[in-house]
Structures are given as structure tokens and as C-alpha cells.
Amino acid sequence: MPPKDTFDSPAYRPTARLLHWLIAALILLMIPAGQIMIVKGLPRGLQDALFLFHKNAGVVIGLLMLVRLGFRLRYPPPPLPPSVAPLQARIAGITHALLCLLVFVMVVSGYLRVMAGGFPIEGLDALGVPDLMGRNPGLETVAKTTHAITRLALVVLIGLHIGAALFHALWLRDGVMARMAPRRSVK
Ligand code: HEM
Ligand code: HEM
């Protein structure tokens, strides 16, 4: 019989939770958008719209991740409930660090793939951010391959992460999910 949700573990700060869910929602949109936009024979208008969204939201994710990293360094996460074994906590920590790393690799490889391919990133162009790179077919290929391979690892890790979150929320009911729940006052 799983224990009742105790809710006695302190939650992440509201800013940390806001950033988590904003970035999570964007990434969960970016993955299907990326997959669909490269399908051959897609109507031109839809493909252009998906590329526009994917490239610019990708840059926004990168910036939000930097804010998140800064915030996390300033405000470390609250301690986990004692029901979480040290090894389990360590695995969760490694998974979270790996998730962040893979997101950064996706952002950088996506950016390099576009810039080295000589394509625009409309949001950055509108802000007057200069193109410091110019066309570079070798780099374009490396970045494209990195982007495609890393996305597989990211999808697997996100699957494990969501699975673990649901396991805590629905089976263990140990308050771990409540730490990151969208609405929760900080204890
Ligand atoms: C967390 C951030 C990102 C995620 C999760 C993501 C995900 C994906 C996925 C799943 C694909 C389809 C598979 C592939 O060919 O790689 C893709 C393709 C692509 N992404 Fe991203 N992406 C991200 C960031 C970016 C950024 C920042 C840019 C550019 C500014 C970008 C540009 C592209 C381009 C141009 C393609 C087509 C690749 C090709 O030529 O085949 N992505 N992305
Ligand atoms: C429906 C989807 C998701 C759910 C239910 C979920 C749930 C959670 C929960 C409950 C935590 C807190 C774990 C703890 O107590 O330490 C957490 C942390 C975290 N999640 Fe998610 N998550 C989701 C999607 C994502 C996505 C898409 C990403 C990024 C790729 C992500 C990255 C992270 C990271 C990096 C942390 C650690 C935060 C920190 O320690 O600063 N999550 N998530």
C-alpha cells in the first residue's frame, strides 16, 4: 500500500517552478515541431511556420536556461523528503544535470546548424544581433548530426524523467511531485 502524500517536503521557489514548466512546455512543443518540419512534401506555409517557431523558440529556450542556471546557483533546490534514498537522489541529480546539458547541446547545435548553413534566425536579426560566423558547410554537417543524435538521447531522458515524476505522483505519493507542482506556496 503506497504511503499517503505527505506534502511535508519544501517546494522549489515559484520562479524555479515557473521556469521549469515554461521550458518544459516549450521543449515538448519543439520536439514534434522539429520532427514534422523536416518531413518531405510538407505544405510550404506549414513548413515555414514550423521552422520560424522552432528556430526562434529554441533561442528563447537557451536564454531561459541561462536564467534558470543563474537562479539555481543563487537558490539551490530544497532538500528531498527523507523517504528518497541517497542513491535515488543521486540518480535524480545526475538525470537533471544531464537533461540541462542535453538541452544546451540542442540549442547550440541548432544555432550553429542554422548560422553555418547561412539561414536566418528572424528574432535575432530583428534585434540586430550580427552573424559572426558566415557559411561553413563542414560545421553545418557536424552541427546537424549532433542535433539529430542528441535529440534521441533527450527524448529517452525526458521519457524517464516524466515516468519518474508520475511514479512519485501517482504511486509513491511522497510529495516529490508537489515540490515542482505549478501552484504551491513555499514552506
Ligand atoms: C531544446 C532545444 C531544441 C530541441 C528540443 C530541438 C529539437 C529538434 C528536433 C527533434 C529536430 C528534428 C530531428 C533533427 O533532424 O534533428 C530538430 C531539427 C532542427 N532544429 Fe532543433 N531543437 C532545438 C533547438 C534548436 C535551435 C535553437 C535551432 C536553431 C536556432 C534549431 C534548428 C533546427 C533545424 C534547422 C532543424 C532541421 C535539421 C535538419 O536540417 O535536418 N533547433 N530540432
Ligand atoms: C510533463 C513533464 C514533466 C514533469 C511531470 C516534470 C516533473 C518534475 C518534477 C516533479 C521535478 C522535481 C524533482 C525534485 O523534487 O527534485 C522536476 C525537476 C526537473 N525537471 Fe522536470 N518535469 C517535466 C518535464 C521536464 C522537461 C521537458 C525537462 C527538460 C528537458 C525537465 C527538466 C527538469 C530539471 C532540469 C529538473 C531539476 C530542477 C532543479 O533541480 O533545478 N522537466 N521535474
Can you describe what's shown?
With 187 residues, the protein is an all-alpha fold. The chain has a single domain, classed as Fumarate Reductase Cytochrome B subunit (Up-down Bundle), CATH 1.20.950. Helix 1 runs antiparallel to helix 2 and helix 2 packs across helix 3. The chain is elongated and about 55 Å long. The chain starts with 13 loop residues before the first helix and ends in a 7-residue tail after the last helix. One protoporphyrin IX containing FE binds next to helix 1, helix 3, helix 5 and helix 6. Its cofactor is heme b.
Task: Record the SSE blueprint.
Layout: H1 14-37, H2 44-74, H3 86-116, H4 122-126, H5 137-172, H6 176-180
The structure holds protoporphyrin IX containing FE (2 copies).
Membrane topology: Multi-pass membrane protein
Cofactor: heme b
Organism: Thioclava arctica
Bound molecules: protoporphyrin IX containing FE
CATH architectural label: Up-down Bundle
Shape: elongated
Return Rg in Å.
19 Å
For the largest beta-sheet, the strand count, sense and barrel status come to: none
The top-level CATH class is: Mainly Alpha
Give me the CATH fold name: Fumarate Reductase Cytochrome B subunit
**DSSP E strands, number:** 0
The tally of helices reads 6
Instruction: Identify low-pLDDT runs.
Output: 1-7
The number of domains is 1
Q: Please, what is the average pLDDT?
A: 93
Quote the distance from N terminus to C terminus: 28 Å
Percentage of residues in helical conformation: over 70%
Structural class: mainly alpha
Order of helices and strands: HHHHHH
As a percent range, the share of strand residues is: under 5%
InterPro entries: Cyt_b561_bac/Ni-Hgenase, Cytochrome_b561_oxidase, Di-haem_cyt_TM
Membrane topology: Multi-pass membrane protein
Cofactor: heme b
Family: Belongs to the cytochrome b561 family.
